[in-house]
Amino acid sequence: MRMTALMIALLLASPALAQKPASGTPASPPAAFDPELPASDLLVRYEAPTLRFRWALAPEASLEPALVRLMRKEALADREKAIAQAKDAAPPGSRQFQSLWMESWQPEAETDLLLALSTKHYEFTGGAHGNMLFKSVIWDRSAEQRLAFGQLFADPKAAMAAVKPAFCKALDEARKEKRGGQLGSNFADCLDPAAYPIVPMGEGQIERFRVLVPPYEAGPWAEGAYEITLPVSLIRAFLLPRYIGAFTKS
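Given the sequence above, the corresponding structure tokens read:
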């Protein structure tokens, strides 16, 4: 009887008493963990005879719930808009086709302070071919704020002025590569890089950045997109002090 009472008393002891470490053994702090978002938060889909809608966000974004909420809200609004447009494009009784809307966001840069993503956005609503364009996101992880590329700089105009000559030279070289070594006279003008999405690139620190030019901007549709990669040495002198540490020195 006494043994039974003793066992019950031990089983009912407080958790703090029951988990007390042995003498001489330091207590360990509780294990830290990152909050996880359901995988479904990174996907938005819709399937109907008139529309196929696909939106996907890279798993790296799940560590930034505020960013996921913002981008998912935009995707849901895009889905409703695409549904309405698909219905208008294929009224009852007409020959129907399935419109397409697709975005798959991929990581481009991940540092302690900044996370950058990009996507090739594709839509088909009829015609000879679909429409493709680029999008990018730069996220200040500490401030929980979405940034435009220009917001990284104290003087965005000066930064882009420094980028343009190198961008135009690299763009012409890429054009020549697609055109058998000749630039030609069509689609030969220099473009303004600030008119297109620009995304930082790198792991741990940002080492380069890329200007994303969609088809039919720098060349005919058959040449496809132009993705021009440039070194951060072109822009480092213009960075705001807050962001300098996220970029390499070379």
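DSSP finds five helices and ten strands in the chain. Try to locate this feature in the token string yourself.
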